[in-house]
Amino acid sequence: MFRILVRGKKDRNAVSKAVDLFYNGWGITVESLGGSRGRGFTDALIEKLKPFTIVLAGRRDLESAVEAFSQAGITPFTGLSFVNRSEVRNARLEMIGHAIDRGRAMMRAGLSYTREGSILAYSVNHNVINEYHPEMDNFIITGGKGAELLSEITGATINPPIIAYKYGEGVHEFYKCGRLIAKGKLGLFKTELTPVSNSHIDCNDNLLHSNSNVIREMDSYIRKFLETNVGEADLAVVPWSGGKDSTAILISAVEVLGKERVVAVHSDTGVEFPDTVRYVSSVAEKMGVRLITVKAGLDNAIKHRGLPRLGERWCTGLKLDALHRVFRELKKEYGNIVVLVGDRDAESKIRVKRPPVRVEEDRLVLSPLKIFGGGHVELYILSKGFDLNPLYTMGFYRVGCYICPSLRHWELSIIRKAGLVREDNLYFNMFIKERRVGEDERNGR
After folding, report:
1. pLDDT score for 348
2. What's the pLDDT score for residue 156?
3. What are phi and psi of 313, to 5 degrees?
4. Domain map of the chain by residue range?
5. Cα 230–chain centre separation
6. What is the end-to-end Cα distance of the chain in Å, rounded?
7. Which fold would CATH assign to domain 226-394?
């Protein structure tokens, strides 16, 4: 999956114990660079530094590690994580585990800016992000209403693309051409963003061009992951929501395995965005892949159970039940099947703990995108000649139902501005009414 580099053998032994404890079964390797200090450590690190590598360094070795990263330039999918002890070996396993998490965040959410433009990779010389947090993720606003909303808030004319960073508790930052332009909180009931720059920002930030090396490394990683883990399976099944992650998985599966060995399964909730329904249909047709659409029946269930809520998301169970029924039918039809899912580290606390290769019931489940950021996934799709779901171009971080209790005020503003749901839609009006009640209760009204 990725490897971790440390200076000495005792550091390697300590990190290996942490990996066994926190990342058992993830396929992470830990390597020692021979124990040399100073220039010897720097030279050894420069020689060994390559994509999908995290370097852990204690206080005594941090300066040498920084020098190595500085000389190496921008290497995609790498991270340099500091362990606040004189030596890595002196740290508790929990501290080492946290350091690995920060390194993963650097691989997933790194951002550098050079004359070539914005590059979704960590570097020492060109780094843009001040601090990396384990829960952070990024996504790209490529056009539409998201850019208009940011322009209104900042008072500046901001043209896409815009790189957005999502932290915990709804905290977001927005970057254009390496500059922080707005930050604040995208909450359920309110959008609170503070403009950092109100000047006109105009630059030619061609993300596909500046990230060509990043995309190439990502493509190679996914291809190798699928070739290694799918093996002789008769069929690869992709649960496909129409979101960026499952779309990227479907594209890569068809490319690596061939469309004859791939089936896409779309769970139609009955309360999908019309843009998503059209997107799924058009992309499946363009790929020529077999598409099975199964009805999850949320629209009918709402009549009896009411709307899903944050503390009672019964909708997920209905969607999974519908998918699993199809999985079982396909297993009877084909025999040996493997399920390819779009799980990524930063999506949820549950998903971050799942290993990239696991078994559920009697099915092998693979997560090829596990270590990538949302921005990487979007660029990967575009690089393959496919459009993004229109909701992403407008500023959505994730795509779900239009009654999802996780929809934020920011996304609801986009829905209204773009007319994404008909004004007379019964279920959406129910959702808006309940959201207003929740806002009134929150404000003591």
Report:
1. 62
2. 75
3. -95, 65
4. 3-109, 137-209, 226-394
5. 22
6. 51
7. Rossmann fold (3.40.50)
With a CB cutoff of 8 Å and minimum separation 6, the contacts of 399 are: 241, 242, 243, 244, 273, 276, 389, 391, 392
Query: What is the reported pLDDT for 198?
Result: 61
CATH class in words for 3-109 = alpha beta
Chain centre to alpha carbon of residue 329? 30
- Tell me the residue type at 154: T
What is the model's pLDDT at position 353?
Answer: 76
Beta-bridge mates of residue 338: 236, 364
Residue 163 and residue 317: Cα distance in Å, rounded?
33
For tokens 């390597």, name the residue.
Answer: 31
Q: Which tokens belong to 231? A: 């093996």
What's the confidence (pLDDT) of residue 91? 98
* pLDDT, averaged in runs of 10, over the chain (445 residues): 96 98 94 96 97 98 97 97 97 97 96 96 96 94 83 80 93 93 92 79 85 98 97 96 97 97 96 97 97 95 92 92 95 95 80 86 94 97 97 92 94 91 94 79 55
**Which residues, including other chains, have CB under 8 Å from residue 61's CB and lie 6 or more apart?**
7, 37, 41, 87
Per-residue confidence (pLDDT) for residue 1, from 0 to 100: 85
What is the pLDDT at residue 42? 97
Q: How far is CA 213 from CA 76, 127, 220, 380, 403, in A?
A: 8, 17, 11, 11, 39
What whole-number distance in Å separates Cα of residue 108 and Cα of residue 374?
Answer: 8
What is residue 147's predicted lDDT score, i.e. its pLDDT?
A: 86
| Single-letter residue type at 301 | A
